[in-house]
């Protein structure tokens, strides 16, 4: 499993927790258990995909990631993480075009994660010798990182 895939999984799991808290607050009622169960099924699909990817079973990993993506159309933030993870799988099997399309989908769904997505795109483009575009994506990632750090710094002062 690549570092990027692990990061996508961790981001996905944290997103589920944060979204449940934001949507339902810390009330005595808690979240709707049906919704929690649905999201846990998505997490299970994504983890199964990651385990298969770690074994280099790309076909199986892709099948489970596609199932997760199909389930999560109404949760764009989570869907972005799944597209990013699927893009990593596409890149591993050498499908440059589909990897870049999924990275673009992830960026549009969750612009807050653009730093990670542009970093992944830069790595994928470099792997396929598209160096000019790889450098452009690396620069975009750097700009997002600088912007993110500046924003965070201003909130703390």
Mean pLDDT: 78
- Identify low-pLDDT runs: 150-157
What characteristic shape results from the CA principal axes?
A: globular
**Strand fraction band?**
under 5%
Largest sheet: none
Q: Which H/E pattern describes the elements?
A: HHHHHHH
E-strand count: 0
Structural class based on helices, strands and sheet pairing: mainly alpha
Brief write-up:
This protein is mainly alpha-helical and 157 residues long.
Q: Could you walk me through the main structural features you see in this protein, from its secondary elements to its overall organization?
A:
- Helix 1 (3-24) packs antiparallel against helix 2 (33-54), helix 2 runs antiparallel to helix 3 (58-71) and helix 5 packs antiparallel against helix 6 (114-127).
- This protein has seven helices and no strands.
- By secondary structure, the protein is mainly alpha-helical.
- The model is unreliable at 150-157 (pLDDT under 50).
- The radius of gyration is 16 Å and the shape is globular.
- Helices cover 82% and strands 0% of the residues.
Question: Which labels suit this protein?
Answer:
mainly alpha; 157 residues; 7 helices
Q: What is this structure's SSE topology?
A:
Blueprint lengths: L2 H22 L8 H22 L3 H14 L4 H17 L3 H14 L4 H14 L3 H26 L1
